[in-house]
């Protein structure tokens, strides 16, 4: 096994995740199998209990792991399926060591950071790196490890020490360190300054790690004299110093790395030059150029409560981008109108409306109004998780006349609970107790829009993250009034997909289809939303219904089953520039 470690210096937010994912893609294009590990030095066991404002979205894996959003970036870039083992946190490491101590594994020993914590970190890395993530048997060829935070952070110190020991143990031909740093340009003099990177590398070397490659973030390409200066003071060959300068969209980053021969430096450091082929990024290059040339806009109003931080809905935005590029439309998203009038105007000017997941009652009335407007005005609508529950609440209030209909989450004493707490959930323990991971949904109505979008599938496997569900005791009343619950779990009592047959496109889903959307393989439901928003839904439904081969997990009753996304031809970038319409749920109110 070969290892590539990506660290960051000077400031946070430089794009270590983008760099790590781009390196993985570049190595994969060289014919190597690649896996990824993200190290988060925080004390939380996982990301599940953190606010999106605190750390961005919580990404959910197939096995139910609630992890850092960077693992979503890895999955999208490399088209792999990671596990909870691929996200290492300080909380997990200390919990494992303490459990071993209580069992007596260290009997007679004083348990210390060195060697017990550092050994646990190294063992975890080796164990996670061996897990197949690309659907093939056996371990990958290369594991790309991203160390979260910035060099010098106190909480990172055990990981730095462990990785220093690890690099020595596996040997120089099996370990390559890429250090991402900042080369700022002072506006007063317009000169690229190397001192921050010099200090960052000096600190890294003082902690026992020596960078093989410098990836320098800057507004423009590094001058040759700047590279020479960095090479001299950082002890890194000039040909191993690459510039990650500002580009129109992030899809260009793997191409920048390739054009600067970063793959050769990495392969040389890993003794793989004679094994790997030249990188083939033909398709990626084509997609990048196509994306840059899109100009026909599609406006999607996203009514959410965490719009103050775009990373809170990163996977949703990426799924929208996958689908819009697939349909050759330029995605338009515009965030956070501050007034009711502005928000309402944005909503009315949108081609489609999306209500994503969330927790808590803040902004709920705005979401209900958005669902009502979409339903009554025949505007394409997609509700995800909470968005589906909102659609049911609105329908019960407006159509059934149950004006106090609500969710137990928002009003525990409501006399008409449309949404209830799941019986198997825990009300005393928050972390890891939701209904998590990939679950099967059976499509009960063969000719519904959802089934057609999924290629006439009889069931689909999608990822979940919720502790509330639509009240099964109200289903008959809701369906009698025109709602159709076309997708259910294996018991038939848990609602997974709801549609309004009389509406051009009104779909709510309890699961999160955005987590399985991939570049070139847009989520079926997001593709449907974009198609409906630009008047191409009928064409898409006819095409999907005649698909002979679907990206799926098998055959059921002679029809294709489906694992979450459509076949397609467009790639996505990690943090692409997104312009578009987003309406804050708090801004729309009575």
From TrEMBL:
EC number: 6.3.4.2
Limits of the CTP synthase N-terminal domain: 2-272
A Pfam entry, by short name: CTP_synth_N
Any one biological process term the GO annotation gives: pyrimidine nucleobase biosynthetic process
Catalysis performed (reactions): UTP + L-glutamine + ATP + H2O = CTP + L-glutamate + ADP + phosphate + 2 H(+)
GO molecular function, one term: identical protein binding
Record family assignment: Belongs to the CTP synthase family.
Stated name of the protein: CTP synthase
Organism expressing this protein natively: Gossypium australe
